[in-house]
Amino acid sequence: MAKKVAKKTMLRVTLVKSTIGFPEPQKRTVRALGLTKMHQTVEHEDTPAVRGMLNAVIHLLKIEE
Q1: In a domain, 38, yes or no
Q2: Phi and psi, residue 43, nearest 5°
């Protein structure tokens, strides 16, 4: 029998505000998400670890499912 594969939910994350003037841990979190330039968009799987990172810097991002 073929195994049923669940479709993974992806999150599209865009950096909409600069990290200048924000604490260093927030800058490192944005960089760890793969965002280096303004209006850059990356996609991540919807996992608890990624959600935690997004919640830490939500004021700098635009998030779409």
Answers
A1: yes
A2: -115, 140
